[in-house]
Design brief:
By secondary structure, the chain is mainly alpha-helical. It has seven helices and five strands, in the order E-H-H-E-H-H-E-E-E-H-H-H.
């Protein structure tokens, strides 16, 4: 999820409506949708094994996601009772103000954003725990940085839009033919500085 400008036309994109954001604000549903987007179509059984949960839970939550159009059955892969699921979209986006008139949807959106922050911390810690065993090229290429700028909302929006365009250009140019290519998580965050203890 992000609140940047719309992604390139090559990707399927959904702007989350009130109902979708409320359904998505659940830990297992977020993981199911993310896994389907990253790894492609799968059965509830395969997803349960991958996410260390049970098939009943994955089946139930996949149906909840399907009811609001975030996942769909993949009829070309299904055989008999085996149902395959795929993500209906590549990217979900929203602006926080989309839900100002709906306290439940606003709370769901805030939970989703908080979950992104938790995921960032978890993935960064995983990388740091194994970085020493990776090649110097990967250790030098990966990293985090920060900077404090003085911007108004219009310039911050323009910055986010420009950075999103750079990310989408690299996405569209990405190829698995590059030596040592692998999936890389890129998080984009920009928010006003709030004074307080660090």
């Amino acid at each position: 999820m992000e609140n940047a400008s719309p992604p390139s036309d090559a990707l399927r994109n959904v702007r989350l409506d009130h109902r979708q954001v409320r359904v998505l604000a659940h830990p297992l549903r977020m993981r199911l949708l993310g896994t389907l987007r990253l790894d492609g179509p799968a059965t509830a059984t395969a997803l349960a094994e991958k996410l260390d949960t049970n098939t009943g839970a994955t089946s139930y939550h996949l149906r909840q996601l399907a009811e609001v159009g975030l996942v769909v059955e993949d009829p070309d892969r299904g055989t008999g009772r085996q149902r395959w699921w795929r993500a209906a979209h590549d990217i979900s986006n929203f602006d926080p103000s989309d839900y100002d008139d709906d306290p439940d949807a606003r709370a769901a959106m805030e939970w989703i954003q908080g979950d992104q922050v938790r995921l960032l911390a978890e993935l960064a810690e995983r990388w740091m725990a194994e970085a020493a065993s990776r090649s110097p090229q990967w250790r030098d290429a990966a990293g985090m940085s920060d900077m404090v700028l003085t911007l108004g909302p219009a310039r911050l929006q323009a910055l986010n839009d420009e950075l999103w365009q750079v990310l989408m250009r690299h996405h569209d140019e990405a190829t698995s033919d590059e030596p040592d290519a692998r999936s890389v998580h890129v998080f984009l965050a920009a928010f006003p500085r709030v004074e307080g203890k660090r």
